Structures are given as C-alpha cells and as structure tokens.
Amino acid sequence: MEHQAQLKDKKYRNWVKAGLGLKYVKEGLEPFCDHLVNQQHTAILDKVKRKHNLSTVTCGRCDVRTLQPDHIQTKTRQCPLGQMYCNCLHSRGKISCAKKVCGAIYDEIIQLHASTPPAPYWKNTDAQQWCTEPWSVAKCFINAPGYEHKIRAVEFDCAGLLHVLLNNIEFQQHIKCAITGTDVFSRVRMSRNEIFHSNSMELEDNAVNSYIDDMIELLKDKIEIKHRQESKAAVKKLQKLKQEDFIISTTDEAEIRRVAMAAVKEKEKELEQTITNAGNKLRTTAERERHDIEGKGLAIKSELEQTGQNIEKKLVIKEDESKKKLEQEGIEIEKQLTRKKVEAEEQLEQKLQESKLQLEDIAETKRQAEKSKQKVGNFIYYF
C-alpha cells in the first residue's frame, strides 16, 4: 500500500499520531534533561575533587572495562555497593586511575543508579570522556544499547531520555510522581515500545488517546517540567494530535517510520545483548558457584581436621586420665598391701611373743615341778 493510501487508513493514522506524540515528548524533555545532566556532572567532579583533594579533574586514559574502582570487594566476595557484575569482583587485570579520578566517578555512577541492585549500562559509555562530556556519564543510566556515540540530548530518542530520568536517583528528585513502575513516566516508556514495535502499525482511537493523555500528564509534572516553555509547547502539540482533523504530512509520516525502523534495530541489538548477558551471567554464576563449592569444601576439610584434632586431644586426655587413674589405683593397692603386710607382721610378732611367753610359762612350770619332785624325793629319803 502506498503511503498516501495508508494515510487514509484511520488506524494507521492513529499509529503515526502516537509516534508524533513521542517526538513531541522528546522535544519537551530535551532541555530539561540537558540541564540535569550538566548539573549532575559538575557535582560529581566537585565530589571527586573533595574526595581526593584534587585541584582539577582530568584523565582521558581509562577504559571502563579494565578500570579498578575506588572501592574493593568485601571479605565474602561481594560488591559493597551492591552491583552484581562490578569490576571489584574481577580485580585481575584491572588498573587504578593514575589521576585518582575515574575510579571515583565509577563509584558515583553505581551509587546514583536507581535500580536494585544497581545496574549501570557500561557498554554505552566511554570512560575517557567522563571528565569532559556530561552525557558520557549520563548514558550509563540508559539500560539499552545504541547510544554509544551520542553526546547531546537532541541526539537521543524519547526512550533514552526517559531511561535517564527513571534510572537516576538524583533526577527522580526533580519529578513529582513517585517512580513505581506503573507511574506515568514508566507507562510512556513502555508505550513507546508498544508503538514502535508494532507489526501492524495500527492503533484504535481509545489506544492512541490513552497514549497521548499519558504524554500530556508527563509533561505537566508539577515540580519543574510543567513550568518550562519547551514542555508547554509540546503539550499544545499533543493536544492538537487528539483533534480529528489533524493533518499528517508525508514528512511527518516518513520521520515516524524512520524512527520506528531505528527502534526495531535497537530492539534487535537489545535482544542480542540480552543473550550475551545471559551467557555471561551463566559463566559468572558457574564460576561463583565453583568458588563457593571450593570454599565450602575447604571449610568442611578444615572443620573435619579441627574435629579430628579435638578428638585426638580428648583421647590423649582420656588416656592420660586413665593412666593416672591406674597409677593412682596401683599406689592405693600397694599402700593397702603394705599396710596389710605390716599388720600381718605385727600380728605374727604378737603371736610369737605370746608363744614365747607361753613357753616360758611352761618352762617355769616344769622347773617348779622338778623342784617339787626333788622335795618329795628328799622327804622320802629321810624317812
């Protein structure tokens, strides 16, 4: 179907309108995001200066893939900042920043990331530009590929700008609504995917109106966004989109189709990256589990050795105690035997003394008898 004929199809026109709505949201957010990114970049560099007592913050030589962070892993091999795949967990081959700058910026990015656990998208960034290009830092908060060479808000699509706002803790403080996953910022980000990843490129009236209402609500956020002139201008354009007689030019249509094609290519890259990340995660998990198993094995071995040593000590103690007990019992028996021997000797001596006395008595009795016999004999002789 030719474009002119397609434009007469209402559902297709609704799809183009939704795409234009995202374009207007991007226009309304660009200056706001530029302001926040530049402001935060200055604050990060000032914090690094204070942390390391630096007069200037310059480097331009570090690579985020080989950068050693300022922080180090815990004794339990965990990132103290909570990042699952942090450089601190794989310190082999990592290099500290010679200027004491990039490791500190690395830490700041992790701590500013709003997800739990924090998950900066390091593939989008070039650490060599951290000191000079504010968006090189901000791109770490876009959790999708395809932004590697972009350095200004105008170069980013609506999804990229929304990622930056949704994934940065400090940026959320400039937004009235709480970011919960069902908030208007999250809804617009998801609707962008639904619109540009649509195979039919068609939308019903109620769907496109719902999308546009969310976009208007986003640009009317009460803290700062609604007060900016570019946001007010974008809201007016969005309100015109809802009019039945809104005219869609072929230029507008061609631009939305081009953006949709770019979104599809980005989705392909994202899926490829998801597969790569899944493979890396499996390898990392397997390696971690291997280390855990080895660590547990060593712990069990150490525990068994300690248990064996304790048992051996107890056996030695028991053996010593038994030996001492036997020795003590031997001494007691020996004492008892000695005592009984002494008692027996004393009793024997006493018996001998008694027998001796009895023999002496018998001898005396015998002598007396002899005397008596002699007296009787003498008496008979006289008569």
Distance between the termini: 191 Å
Q: What about the largest sheet?
A: 2 strands, parallel
User: Largest sheet, order of strands side by side?
Assistant: 1-2
Number of strands: 2
Helix content: 55-70%
Mean pLDDT: 87
Gyration radius (Cα, Å) is: 50 Å
- By secondary-structure content and strand pairing, the structural class works out as mainly alpha
Beta-strand content: under 5%
Total helical elements: 10
List the helices and strands and how they pair.
Blueprint: H1 3-7, H2 10-52, E1 67-68, E2 95-96, H3 102-112, H4 134-138, H5 158-166, H6 169-172, H7 184-196, H8 205-219, H9 229-241, H10 250-382
Parallel strand pairs: 1-2
